[in-house]
Structures are given as structure tokens and as C-alpha cells.
Amino acid sequence: MTFFDRFMSDRATEFGSENIVRGEVFEVLNSEGEIYSIDTGDPGCPFQGPAWRNVLSSASDHDYYIPVEASYRKRDREENFVGYTVNFGYGVEGFLPRSRSGYYYPEERDATSKRLLVRVIQFHPCGVKQGNVVVEAAQLHGKDGVKMNVSQGSSLWGLSVDILMERHILLELPSGKFGIAPVEEALRLTGMRYLEALTGRNYRVIVGKICHHMALSRTVHSVSLREVQSDD
After folding, report:
1. What homologous superfamily does CATH list for 3-137?
2. 45 CB-near residues (< 8 Å, 6+ apart)
3. pLDDT tens digits along 22-51
4. Chain region(s) in the chain for CATH 2.40.50.140
5. What whole-number distance in Å separates Cα of residue 91 and Cα of residue 93?
6. Spatial CA neighbour of 73 closest among 111, 34, 35, 36
7. 61, 94, 169, 202: which is deepest, by most CB within 10 A?
8. Residue among 41, 50, 133, 43 nearest 90 (CA)
9. Model pTM score
């Protein structure tokens, strides 16, 4: 069992898996662009349990992001890196295309075993591809990234994307900036025990001084973590 499976199991125990999956109706778009209703209270519904609830919640709301674990890299027949198989928990899997992987697009960066924050962009509720899920990673950078002033003393939200060798977490900040914070701060704030569980989270930070990071070969902001966004 991976850290993410334990995380999903703990959440189901905390909130009561029976209470959060029964009798809910989700409206999603099928591959033809038609609205398709899924009633998880139907005994014959194939999409039962907390993991499918997360998938359906995101499939029915384009702005709803959910946590996943990047299980392993996928390659095509020519051995080209094409994306990641992602784990929603409880044996439910999906696909994160390389083109939608944000920070992890470069092949030298490896998301394997890390927690990511994603949203569902394609879901097949029926037919031969029933249950197939395609997702894209959350990101603050890129052409649709968040633009705002990032300067010392600013209070803003950052997205944790990686764990660095010297026990810092790396965060995407608005306007294409990066921030780093000690792993210990993130462990204390989240209450997590696993380093892999610290990424794929939104943290409110206070921006500190700019420094040059040798391993990243770029300047970054030191930041202090003040708050972490809940998974609920």
C-alpha cells in the first residue's frame, strides 16, 4: 500500500465512506459532449467509493481539483515519454498526459510516487472505454498562469510541486516565480508523515528574500508557510 492509498483510507475512515458516496447524482459530459447522469446510490453503478466520488466531483465541475499519486511513467512504442499513470486510490487509475503535466513536462523531472493536484478533463461514463479518466495537473505557471506582484513581504498562495534534495519543498508562485520552504514547516503544518504527501498542495506563504538556488540554476524566493488548503 502506497502513502496515497493510506491517505485515502484515512480520509474514508475519518469522514465515513458510507456517508460520502451513497445517493449522490453527478452530471458529466460523455465523449459525444452529451450530459450523462450517474447515480452512485444505484446498486448497479460501477463507480462506487471515495476514489470515484473524487473523480466524478471533478468531472462534473471543471474547477474542482483532486489529489492523486503519480504511479509510474508511461512510454509509447518508440519509448518516448508520454505521461503518467495516476492513482486515485482503491485501485482506480487515470492518465496524465505529458502535455498536461505542468511542472513535470521536462523528462528530467520525475513525478513518480509524488502527490499531484489535478482536475478531470475527460471521463468515459459508458461504452467500451467506460471508466477511462484523463486529467491535467494544477499549475500557477504557463500561458494561463496566475499573474500578480511577487515581492518580499507579499502574502499569497503557492502550489507545492517538488521535494528538493536539501529538504526543501519547491512551490510555484504567481507570475512564473518559484519559492522554497523547509520540509519541516510543511510536515508540521499538514500533520503528514510522508515527504511525498507534501506536494500537490496549495500553501499560503509569506514571501522572503530572493536567493540563487544552485541545483535549480535560477533565483527563487525563500518563503515561510502560514496555511495549507484543506483537501475537503
Report:
1. Nucleic acid-binding proteins (2.40.50.140)
2. 38, 39
3. 569 999 987 778 899 999 888 899 998 999
4. 3-137, 155-228
5. 6
6. 111
7. 169
8. 50
9. 0.89
